[in-house]
Batch of 4 targets.
Target 1
Amino acid sequence: MDAQDKGPLAGLRVIEMGSLIAGPFCGQVLGDFGAEVIKLEDPKAGDPMRQWGRSLPKGHSPWWPVIGRNKKSVTLDLRGPEGQAIAKKLIEKADVLVENFRPGTLEKWGLGYDALSKINPGLILSRASGYGQTGPMSQRAGYALIGEAMGGLRYITGEPDRPPARAGISIGDSLAGLHGALGVMMALHHRHATGKGQVVDVSIYESVLAVMENTITEYALTGYIRERSGSILPGIAPSNAYPTLGGEMVVIGANQDTLFQRLSEAMERPELAQDPRFQGHAARGKHQGEIDGIIADWTRTRTTDEVLGLMEKFGIAAGRVYRAPDMIADEHFKARGSIVDVPHPVFGEVKMQNAFPTLSDTPGRVRWPGPALGEHTEEVLRGVAGYSTAEIEAFRTRGLI
């Protein structure tokens, strides 16, 4: 297997603890790019993601194949000293430990960084939690919806005349997972220079806060609090979703002067670009509702294909509002391999998003879907920790694995 097949993180060993999304998504990203990710799961139930989903086709979660992909599943009871001793033997041979327990849990188990760094000074510990490892709120339970609210995203999401809405996915958890993977890469670079590991402290609320653009700075300088604005960004016009013939929607972004002029020409309304209400960025922002109404009146008389064809002809950014079937059918997705078919022992084959971003020489890839619970227990305990077959059977008899 060449470097391209292995991925850029080949040779990196990651132990993943925790469950649900924030920690496991970090592990998914690292595994997508070639790291050996050993996921430790409770022997009785495993990660709850194995059962999550609106439906369970053939009794299996359609979520687990994605977030569990490229990982090795090892069952291990971490709540007792024997299981903790086994975990230490695995961590001793690892580069990275990923966890998303409530702060203090690892320490309670004798697996805090002070203890682990003594047996593995180069270990990088990525810790995801609701509020971080320090501060007065650190010990509270924290989930994505809380982090999204505390980080400012929830307040500005939705229609202005309705309560705050949430995104249709647990974006706070995924952002925390991405920040965890980013932190691991930074810490690995530092370790390469110094030989020392360190702790990557990721909070969900700060992961959301990091992508909140200028909301803090704008308030501090001007007193302006960004409010919910529905499908628009206030003052950025035209940039919205518009109805087309047949009940579909297209999104069009033409909020620069040159783009708005070209949009006016595409609509056969060149006078719009000369209208004082719409001349210049500030003027269009002030009359945002009027300009969106004019564009909507135009788009709803044409099919989606007609509108998109004109937008492409005039060099204006535009696109459909995609659902899952649209993504699967789209030729651009196909050309880039954005969605891949992965062999699955129960489903036969499952479709899922590919590994991103795309690296030119060592791209990530999906090598296998989420494994069966404990599928790799013997392989890992024998090959990584050095236990014998008899020892592994004894662990199983005592309910440790």
Note: The chain has two domains: 3-211+336-397, 239-326.
Target 2
Amino acid sequence: MSHMKSSASAFSGSTRVVTPAGNVAGSLRLPGDKSISHRYAMLAGFAEGISHLTNFSSGADPHSTLACMQQLGAGVERGENGVFTVTGCAGSFQAPQAALDCGNSGSTMRMLAGLLAAQPFTSTLVGDTSLSRRPMERIRMPLTAMGAKLDLTEGHAPVTIHGGPLRGLDYRTPIASAQVKTCLLFAGLQASGTTQVHESVHTRDHGELALRAFGAEVERSKLTVSIQGGQKLHGIDASVPGDLSSAAFFLCAAALFPESNLVLDGVGMNPTRASLLDVLRGLGVRLNVLELSEQHAELVGTLQVLGNPGGLQGAEISGALSAQLIDELPVLAAIAPYTRDGIRIRDARELRVKESDRIALVAQNLRAMGAQVEEFEDGLDVPGGQTLHGAGIDAGDDHRIAMAFAVAALRAVGDTQIHGAESAAISFPEFFEFLDRITER
């Protein structure tokens, strides 16, 4: 297998050049899942005793969470092979001396607010420019109903939390959001009585599984999750499964080539995340799960992807599926021109308030590469059977846009420049190195 020459991916400042590939093959082990890393870090910092977290995410976001836990009094030490040892606060954080910096991480800000709402002090959560534009009213409303007081700036960060005694809440989330659900379960853990969260669609359940792993009882029936206040958490030893949202980029890269053969080891296969695999199978990608095991109720498997000599069909993604695939939609849209029937995305308005307006940026960058695309308020229509050419891509400070278009570039005619490529480090610093490793040119 020929490795890509370093000149093919030369940096000039923060621009990365991606040259077209002939095939995708090889094997990778991905960094730990971002969603699980966040939750384990928070609960380890909050629990009683010591936790050892192996294969913790290498992305910047979960490290923002670890830094916040340190500011709140948890002990955080990085050991050999990136194993983190976290000494918890046994349910009582120390009042932070300064604002808690969440960086680019909406997960940190929204979920940590739930843990802080019951603590008897005032704390302020701040973030970078992108995070400061993201909606925070969705946590303020329910936390206020539980008895906390939150100050926002026009619905956005900085978020100042005046914590105190909370009471349980029966809440129906107006927007499907695993972060909001987890925030309320974290607050409910410390409230009097029971907290119930009713969802319109089943969002990813890493929060519930993490709470159980640390010793809490969490009940779920259909679309309702409930937690009893006053439960104690205890430290755990856990290995974080590989990140399926990161795997998505390589799965889609392999999907573009009829002869591809790629193996991804130790990937998180949580059923609330695995809809991506169903969509890829529907497109005609051949996927095999080679082995499957369970770690702290999270499924972990080895995935093999084989290209389809007959090419890719098309897909329609809407309703509950859009909420479940929210992080994977940019890369699916980016490979849509190469399918036969195109990909249609609806009910994904939430993409407009992510790290960037992902609907607008995907459309803009696809057009830059010569694709036809129709933009809607809540989605996109990307017709199939198109030929793309290399172009200058604007990542818009958004890690998923940078990575999605690096994948689209593999089948384009001519080189593509990804401007703002360094934003990939927010979730996946090794991304370009891994992409080089599996592309044959």
Note: Confidence is low (pLDDT under 50) at residues 1-13.
Target 3
Amino acid sequence: MGAEVVKIEPPGGGDPMRAWGQGDNPTWWQVIARNKYSIEADLKTPEGQNLARRLIEKADILIENFRPGTLEKWSLDPRDLLQLNERLIVIRVSGYGQTGPYASRAGFGGIAEAMGGWRKIVGEPDRVPARMGVSIGDTLAATYGCMGALAALHERESSGRGQIVDVALYESVLQVMEGLIPEWAIAGHKRERTGSKLPGIAPSNVYRCLDGEYLIGANQDSVFARLCSAMSRPELACDPRYATHIARGQNQNELDEIIDAWTATISVNELEALMIEHSVPAGRILDAEDMLSDPHFAAREAIITLDVPGLGAVPMQSPAPKLSRTPSSVRRRAPQEVGQDSAEIRKRWLGE
């Protein structure tokens, strides 16, 4: 979105994310490090700490995700940094937050998903809790960290002062758990794993077709009536077992069986045409191969391609969301070498 981001990497291999991803030439780094500059510094040494301090003195925002106490051990205590740069905003991301009895524990995104309630409710009821498939705990912490940074930037416009934003991974997961806690505290309802079903919300599931699966969300009364018309079963919309949102939730399993029996007789293409014709929210379950050939992705430029040395053309998701007047863009590729921009940053930021 236009920010100039300098990433301080340790000597040697740099950020571990450089080696993450599938295949012989991992590409994950090309996505997460685009638009960033790389400068090399060993924060365990006085020289590295001094370089970091000089950069931080010029910065608007500092982002760190070390275990609490690490910055302090490296003579980079955020309270001291705020004395050095009173407009500085420090985003501190950790597993359990900067305070509390668990603060010193090592924490990863997956652990936060377990503690925050996510893992408990994901998967089939007769199996161990499942992983979502992406590092959702880390992504949520980054999102709430960004939200805190934007709020602090806005407040700084009036106060002229920065502040510290304490982001706990488990609390970021907790934020998206909807009514999990009050449902238990007030109604005595404990959410459990329900597989692909959204309990009490029907129909809203993945249904089998002759040649694949398709997701249908028709839980609103008027939408359900349109689905019944598409199925050539208009009488279902008037059936007391399915006529209302509450009734459909109470009879969810048998309603899913009726819909599944119908979708099993037609192809995904046929089902999609019917859903579009009857204006029923529904969609294909896409993988990466599907996305690269989807016309809607292409029309909105949801996927862009960067030319990366040694890899060639690398397709990846484009920046989001889309701003009308100041659109986001990919202005530079991810740094291919650790510290490749050190000389430039030292010159432009530090005047060396």
Note: Strands lie at 5-9, 36-40, 61-64, 89-94, 164-168, 204-209, 212-217, 282-284, 303-308, 312-317.
Target 4
Amino acid sequence: MFFKIKILYYFFKIKFERIFQLHYSKTYKKIKIFFFLKKLSQSSFYSFLNIKKSRFIDIPIINKSIFMKNFDLINTCGITISQANEIALYSEKSRDFSSMIGDVSVGLSSGTSGNRGIFLVNESERAKWVAYILDRVISLGFKRQKIAFFLRANNELYESAKSKFISFNFFDIYIPFDNHLKRLDDLCPSILIAQPSILILLAKKKEINKLNISPKKIVSVAEVLTKEDKEYLQNVFNCKISEVYQCTEGFLANSCSEGYLHFNEDFLVIEKKYINNEKSKFHPIITDLLRESQPVVRYELNDIITEKKNCKCGSKFLAIEKIEGRSDDIVILLNSKGESVSIFPDIIRRTIILSDSRIIDYAFIQNDNIFKLYIESSCDESFIKAKNALVKRFSEYNCNNFEIVQISTNKHKIGYKKRRVINENI
């Protein structure tokens, strides 16, 4: 009961901040940052900080490798990486995700590349997370919401949302997919949450009448949602697709009324590391002011973000035009002058999908100067069309020293984030 009261407290606090426009106030944000930095001294990794004199630029930028290497020093719970690993791996093998260390929940993330990440959240952090999800994703009301979420792993973080107004139902994606269909139909969820690759499988089942659900809201998570996949899903389910940008590092962004993701800048500090001359694409460097048990401070993600200016929804929070994937998956070639040329994943994706409307799925994998191209289509000619389109696209960059070969299967496995453009050289 006390935990439910905490959720309601934070939920109404969010509403209060919005009513009085505090979530846009720079002064209010500075106060939050001050108290966050004060608590940060509890982390051995950041104990060097002089809180009164320190500025954000004095704090070192870290990445996933540094974050995991210094797990024991960064977290403020006294939990070691071996303890966390033991709990997380037990949960993965047993598929029982109720184990915790004290009041701290341990979660395991496979990551986009399959590299393991571990996150810790205490009871207050879980309550805050639930409050923000209720406010920005689920839209809490007096009508009972039945939510179906397909994920690789359940966690106390998700189970915390259960109440008389919300029925949260976990569907384990490691269980044979067809085994879920009857339970899903019986549940008849009002909200469906899953990664795009799972949503597409569900849409295909619905098209052949093996699934009869008609959710009022669908939320895409975990993977990049491409424009073509979004359009396909909206046509099949006849409802808008919302997105949540969330990873091991926290709840980062959610869709607005116009369908664009906005960073949650009321509790995030977002710095931009631009990666192109036009300063339109960047890596986000994030600081999460809600995280205490495992502080996330000036943490650089290698996701490629294209910034959107002046979103029509009216939100002042930083908007995202699109998430293009990871910098690790930028295609790199040498042109005729021997200069290195970088081609963003979204350019590859659009080139392939626009080459033939009959293409259903695809994957493009770079290994040195050899590209493996997987095309799923109702017509064998689609591969040739996609290949020719890519050759033409690369020639625009004056790149001709490469080979494109056909592969018959896609290496994607359920349980891992789907990547359609992969650079195996990095």
Note: The chain has two domains: 2-326, 330-423.
